[in-house]
Amino acid sequence: MVENLQGKVCFANCVMKNIDKVRDSILESAAYFFDRFGYEKTSVDDIAHRVHKAKSSVYYHFSGKLELFRTVLEHEIDSIRCGLNAVKAKYDVISGQELEEYFMVRIRLITAAKVYRQYVLSSYMLGRNEVSEAVDEVRKKLDDDEYAFFLEVCRTGKEKNIFPEAVSPEIFGNMMLLVLKGIEIQLFDTDDIAKMEETYKAMLEVLMFKIYKNN
Question: Residue 10: its pLDDT value, please?
């Protein structure tokens, strides 16, 4: 009786692992096509064919192309958030060194988010549609993290007399989000990412000078 039950549990675990494996392979295929061709030019047929599965297998795991796109984006954004949280966890207090590392790690993580990059450079940036709404919703987790972080940066900066008292933490947080998104667009629209990173780092050294000076 016990052996029979153990056999059923083992079989169930094997089935679940196989299901997870198929699901992961479908996501990898979707990421491949979204990266190279964008959302509009990718089809569920393409995704299924690359992993040697019937289209019905894709629909077993995902409701359609939009859910695939959203899930791939979630993985990319979660990876960015994880990397940035690791930087913040290294420091007890917010300092110039932490900010400089944060910004440099951020640009590298954003560069690695290939599907997000396709979205930023595509026509889907213009107007409201199901894709832009999905991206904004997924991206909100990162925006909320960064907004909270920059609120703390501003408040700490004011306590250390780095920022003037007139600076509003809320406005500062929103401004930083707008600046960073603008940098993303320029980063994704250049053929010389290395040069862009060099310029970005040089700008950070100038911007961080006062913070270093007051620490």
Answer: 46
Sign of dihedral through CA atoms 36, 40, 46, 47? positive
Q: Pick from 37, 185, 170: which is nearest to 110 by CA?
A: 185
| CATH number for domain 1-62, candidates 3.40.50.620, 2.40.50.140, 3.30.565.10, 1.10.10.60 | 1.10.10.60
Using an 8 Å Cβ cutoff, are 115 and 35 in contact?
A: yes
- Count of C-beta atoms within a 10 Å radius of residue 173: 19
What is the DSSP-derived secondary structure letter of residue 2? H
pLDDT reading at 13 higher than 80: no
Longest C-alpha distance within the chain, in Å?
A: 74
Sign for the CA dihedral angle at 19, 21, 23, 25 comes to negative
CATH of domain 65-213: 1.10.357.10
Confidence of residue 23 (pLDDT cuts 50, 70, 90): very high
What pTM did the predictor assign?
A: 0.80
Give yes or no for a contact between 115 and 39, defined as CB atoms under 8 angstroms apart: no
pLDDT tens for residues 154-186?
898 888 887 888 889 999 999 999 888 888 887
